Amino acid sequence: MPHLNTLVVLFVIVCGGGTSLGCSRAIEPLKSPGESAVALTGGPNTSMIYVARISDGVLAVDLGWWGSEDALTSALADLGARPSEVNAVFLTHSHRDHVGAWRLVRHARFYVAAPEHSRLVGDTAHRGWIPELVNRIMPSDLPPPGDLNVRTFSRDTSFVLGADTVRAYVVPGHTAGSAVYLFRGILFLGDAATYSRLGGFAPAKPGFSDDASRAAESLERLWSRIPAASVRYICTAHARCAHFTRAFLRDVAR
């Protein structure tokens, strides 16, 4: 668990990074007995890990924050799987609350957008003032260079995993290499979009982002690149899912 001082800072401000006013959760679309499961980590921050069975193992989207190894192990048990069966990890970005369980699945292939690679291994720092502040209190626990099998992509890319396809889209702004993933009709937005009970869905929040204006522009340009009728649900990385509708597009365009 992070140092107490880190927790104090994060209790006050971190919920605003993804889902504020109680960090509202809505994850039912992600659960399918024996096929997919969700782990919730990080206390009020509610960082989400998604796991699903694929032809030759298990896929994961993001890896949560503190408590993530136990949470991930429990979610995998819902699939009748073990951590050793996770063979593909897709990271939306490398903020500390999305990479927590990397040691547990360090044997897997990790997929990140190319500009995010140096940030994942700590060679380059994120620029948002809140991540910078928290990192001064307690440095992120990141994998060292060369420790993981990392595969990068520099443009929108499709990855065929047996009978499944993961479509990756580059949406820089929240971080330099933020990405979203489309898998089985679910669009995993990471922190490229946020949710609050009062404001609904909106683009990435400035204090947590390298460049919030660029993040909003990237999100707006995303929709024309996604195959028509391919998205049934959208999900933020902080456990808020919803049906994909035109109303959602109006919200995030604000």
Task: Provide keyphrases for this structure.
254 residues, alpha/beta, Metallo-beta-lactamase, Chain A, 6-stranded mixed beta sheet, disordered N terminus
Question: Can you describe this structure?
Answer:
- The protein has helices spanning 4-13, 68-78, 117-120, 129-137, 212-222, 246-252; strands at 19-20, 36-41, 47-54, 57-61, 86-90, 109-113, 149-153, 157-161, 164-170, 179-183, 186-188, 193-196, 200-203, 233-235, 241-243.
- The protein has 254 residues and is α/β, with parallel strands linked by helices.
- The chain has one domain (4-252): Metallo-beta-lactamase, Chain A (4-Layer Sandwich).
- The strands form three sheets. The protein has a six-stranded mixed β-sheet with strand order 2-3-4-5-6-7, covered by helices on one side. The chain has a six-stranded mixed β-sheet with strand order 8-9-10-11-14-15, with no helix packed on it.
